[in-house]
Amino acid sequence: MAAGEEVSFAVDDESAGARLDVFLARMFPGQSRSFLGRAIEKGAVRVDGIGARASLKLRAGSLVCFTVPEPPRAGPEAEEIPLDFLHLDDCMATVNKPAGMVVHPAKGNWKGTLAGALKWHLEQRGTSPGATAGAHAETGGGLSTAGGPARPGIVHRLDRDTSGVIVVARTEEAHHRLAKQFENRTVEKTYLAITQGQPQFDRDEINLPIGIHPYQREKMAIRHDHSTSREAVTRFEVIERFGRAALVRVAPRTGRTHQIRVHLAAIGCPVLCDALYSGRSVIDRSFLGAAAGEQPLLTRQALHAASIAIDHPITGERLLFSAPLPADIERVLVTLRGG
Question: Phi, psi at residue 13, to the nearest 5°?
């Protein structure tokens, strides 16, 4: 099978009632279950034209379409890319990820990833050149491989154009203990966002399920009672209101793909400059009601992972890591305040 090729199968009476992942394993005996499972997660498999869970029980006559994904690569190459380490010790690290950096390699983004930069700093070089005052500069070890070869040290994700705090595991034990905290929802994540438009309430909770968008693969959507739907809960508080925007503190209680972006768009206040969910990919001064300027103010979504509170995987100490607002979002706020 070649990457990008689409293969379709009609479900016969004998296969009726089988789980989707089991059915695919029968159809592709040469492929591993993990490979097929990842393909389903990424939306490469559709049943009767709709993305589906691996556990979906198939019906006779349904049409299963499988778009062959790119084969997994061995892993990112170490790249000498500057990183802003907020914390670094023998078993974990936290990094202030810049906007525009992809977390791990994927189709179309094999270079310039956070994973590649981490390999250079923590495996090839072995130390961090830019650790802040609270970080441990000299450490041993490298990166956890628990997430697979393409995701060394990666415990959770941030979207490419979202800046801010991300947690990294350096040992297998640390990885499993950190991941368990995300799974159990004991990690406290706080984001700052500038919204296009103002929320109706000063604080509220958005509880709307999120699933794969019905016809745009790169997007997620609010989907009720759909096979790909997952519970999603987001709390927010308005910090400051402006004429056409608001600065909002956001605390996601679950960790769905694009969750904050989808939820804020669902209440009519998408993240400013969010190309997928607001329809705008560039924000200039005139859009915010200020005098026009030569350069755009913002060219990525105004979303920043401001802080994470998490238990140290070995000592159990509760730690809080924070990253200051980047210059582009600060520039928008100055403009909104009349600067």
Answer: -60, -35
pLDDT single digits (tens) 36-57: 887 888 888 999 988 888 889 9
Beta bridge partners of 304: 163, 192
Give burial (CB, 10 Å; 0-12/13-18/19+) of 92: buried
| Catalytic residue (one of 21, 159, 274, 328) | 159
Let me know how long the chain is: 339
Q: Which domains can be identified in the chain, with CATH numbers? A: 6-67 (3.10.290.10), 85-183 (3.30.2350.10), 188-336 (3.30.2350.10)
In the residue annotation, 225 being an active-site residue is answered as: no
- Strand positions, DSSP E, the chain: 6-10, 45-47, 50-51, 63-67, 85-88, 92-97, 163-169, 188-196, 203-207, 210-212, 220-222, 233-241, 245-252, 303-311, 318-322
Q: Give the tens place of pLDDT for each residue, 240-295.
A: 999 899 999 999 999 999 999 999 999 999 999 999 999 999 999 888 888 877 78
